[in-house]
């Protein structure tokens, strides 16, 4: 579903942040991108999403070259959902209004059906539909932004550090929700994460980046089981 | 109604149109345009140039619209490369450049002397010409208000507000923020230019002093006093500011102050209103209505 080939990208006239990264992610697969700060994780996701144009290399989705297709067109025409790391809800809008924003382009009946299904799936949102998003906790906002991306039934979901700023309890709730989406809806999910152990606990495969290149590409369970890899790239201790 | 009152209300209507234009940009889309007067200038000089070169008066609005569309697109294009703060400074600079061009391109614009003798609207209807002009301005203000209201209540208007709140998130929801910005800038520029054409034919004169930067800040004061992102509010703000400005000379006469006082007091009034409202009531007299429905 996603095929990134030899990506090079950077900001403005600055040096390359991505130095030839290749990545694939398929249907019903949760792929996580890990690595230390500044290694290019978020830049890679932004390049795949279309916030940033690659300087060379390319990105294919559903077999089509979408390297230069901007994010708003991917969302509207290529069934892509994107959840940013921070500022991921409109705080002045209610939970219901935020959720309906994701249903742009859907007819009223489909929107209502999907809305009801998501309310059932995420009771934490159902009880706060009329509240302003600014009144939600960090974890609830993450769930809301996930649900908003899901209302349009995307086939590809791109998540930028969904656990950022969450308490350990909410962190598990958010990761369970993400794994649930993969299992129940057969989506292709690419997730950038700092919490490596938790991410590997739910992911199928992982790419560990270092200095803008893929240092390790392996099944998530292999990475979790390998003490040397943990020491080198994942913080050095067992969870 | 006295001629003075008709004059003040007429000018208030023209400034009301300008306030609506600024409100579309700054109020609803978060585009801090400090060079609105350049868009207005497209209108005044569109009408003025047509008159100067002996072309039919009806070509004035057409030329003004062409200049306004180009100005709107240029400023929007600039916005793709600059962050909001720098873009605001750039708009101020562009308006100043436009004024300097108008002052120095004498063969084209008449230079500092400007262009005079533009046909006065409804001059054949004396003594009712003032009332006729006022009626025309009021109708155009009403149409501009209707256009702005329809726009901000549409799905497009929702996109404008989302861009104002969280532009990157709006993109992730499928909104093409460059297209929305360009469309807003063009519509707002055309609205400001319409005000410019009306003003040129109201004063029967066009000159670079109409493009001074304090005029932009006067319109900002109207928007802030009335209530940013509230179309009715900014029209009320335009009337309030114009009436205050109009009564400054009476204050000068009453206290026997020197004539320099008028210009200085008007500047102080704009600045004081902006500062006072930003500190004490930033939402203005009529705050933005939050949570309104948008047509899909």
UniProtKB/TrEMBL annotation, chain A:
GO terms for molecular function: ATP binding; ATP hydrolysis activity; branched-chain amino acid transmembrane transporter activity. InterPro entries: AAA+_ATPase (IPR003593), ABC_transporter-like_ATP-bd (IPR003439), BCAA_Transport_ATP-bd_LivF (IPR052156), P-loop_NTPase (IPR027417). It comes from the Bacteria. Keywords: Amino-acid transport, ATP-binding, Nucleotide-binding, Transport. Residues 2-236 form the ABC transporter domain. It holds the Pfam family ABC_tran. One of its GO terms (biological process) is L-amino acid transport. SUPFAM superfamilies: P-loop containing nucleoside triphosphate hydrolases. Belongs to the ABC transporter superfamily. This is ATP-binding cassette domain-containing protein. It comes from Frigidibacter albus. The lineage of its organism: Bacteria, Pseudomonadati, Pseudomonadota, Alphaproteobacteria, Rhodobacterales.
UniProtKB/TrEMBL annotation, chain B:
It is found in: Cell membrane. One of its GO terms (cellular component) is plasma membrane. It is a multi-pass membrane protein. GO terms for molecular function: branched-chain amino acid transmembrane transporter activity. The keyword Membrane applies. InterPro entries: ABC_transp_permease (IPR001851), LivM-like (IPR043428). Its main location: membrane. The keyword Transmembrane applies. Keywords: Cell membrane, Membrane, Transmembrane, Transmembrane helix. The chain crosses the membrane at residues 6-24, 31-51, 57-79, 86-102, 130-148, 184-204, 210-229, 234-251, 263-280. PANTHER family: BRANCHED-CHAIN AMINO ACID TRANSPORT PERMEASE PROTEIN LIVM-RELATED (PTHR30482:SF1), HIGH-AFFINITY BRANCHED-CHAIN AMINO ACID TRANSPORT SYSTEM PERMEASE (PTHR30482). This is Branched-chain amino acid ABC transporter permease. It comes from Frigidibacter albus.
């Amino acid at each position: 579903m996603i095929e990134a080939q030899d990506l090079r990208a950077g900001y403005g006239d600055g040096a390359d942040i991505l130095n030839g990264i290749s990545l694939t992610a398929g249907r019903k697969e949760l792929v996580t991108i890990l690595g230390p700060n500044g290694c290019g994780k978020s830049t890679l996701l932004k390049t795949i999403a279309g916030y940033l144009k690659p300087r060379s290399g390319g990105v294919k989705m559903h077999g089509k070259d979408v390297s230069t297709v901007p994010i708003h067109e991917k969302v509207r025409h290529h069934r892509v959902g994107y959840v940013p790391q921070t500022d991921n809800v409109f705080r002045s809008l209610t939970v219901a209004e935020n959720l309906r924003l994701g249903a742009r382009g859907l007819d009223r009946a489909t929107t209502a059906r999907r809305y009801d299904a998501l309310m059932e799936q995420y009771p934490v949102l159902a009880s706060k539909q009329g509240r302003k998003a600014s009144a939600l906790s960090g974890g609830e906002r993450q769930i809301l932004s996930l649900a908003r991306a899901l209302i349009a039934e995307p086939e590809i979901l791109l998540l930028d550090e969904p656990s950022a700023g969450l308490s350990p309890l909410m962190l598990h709730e958010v990761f369970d929700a993400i794994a649930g989406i993969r299992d129940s809806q057969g989506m292709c999910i690419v997730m950038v994460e700092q919490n490596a152990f938790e991410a590997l606990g739910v992911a199928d495969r992982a790419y560990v980046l270092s200095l803008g290149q893929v240092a390790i590409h392996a099944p998530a369970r292999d990475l979790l089981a390998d003490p040397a890899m943990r020491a080198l790239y994942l913080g050095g201790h067992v969870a | 109604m006295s001629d003075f009152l008709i004059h003040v209300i007429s000018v208030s209507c023209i400034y009301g149109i300008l306030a609506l234009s600024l409100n579309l940009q700054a109020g609803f889309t978060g585009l801090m345009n400090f060079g609105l007067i350049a868009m207005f200038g497209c209108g005044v000089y569109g009408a003025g140039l047509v008159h100067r070169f002996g072309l039919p008066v009806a070509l004035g609005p057409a030329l003004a619209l062409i200049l306004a569309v180009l100005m709107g697109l240029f400023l929007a294009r600039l916005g793709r490369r600059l962050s909001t703060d720098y873009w605001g400074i750039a708009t101020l600079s562009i308006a100043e450049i436009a004024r300097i061009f108008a002052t120095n391109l004498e063969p084209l614009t008449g230079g500092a002397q400007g262009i005079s003798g533009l046909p006065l609207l409804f001059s054949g209807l004396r003594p009712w010409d003032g009332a006729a002009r006022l009626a025309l301005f009021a109708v155009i203000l009403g149409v501009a208000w209707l256009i702005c209201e329809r726009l901000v209540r549409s799905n497009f208007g929702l996109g404008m507000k989302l861009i104002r709140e969280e532009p990157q998130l709006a993109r992730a929801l499928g909104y093409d923020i460059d297209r929305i910005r360009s469309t807003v800038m063009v519509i707002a520029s055309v609205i400001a230019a319409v005000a410019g054409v009306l003003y040129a034919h109201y004063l029967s004169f066009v000159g670079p002093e109409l493009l001074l930067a304090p005029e932009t800040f006067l319109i900002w004061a109207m928007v802030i006093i009335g209530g940013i992102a509230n179309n009715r509010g900014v029209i009320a703000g335009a009337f309030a500011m114009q009436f205050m400005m109009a009564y400054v000379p009476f204050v000068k006469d009453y206290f026997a102050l020197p004539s320099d006082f008028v210009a200085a007091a008007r500047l102080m009034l704009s600045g004081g209103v902006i500062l006072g409202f930003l500190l004490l009531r930033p939402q203005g007299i009529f705050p933005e209505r939050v949570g309104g429905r948008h047509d899909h």
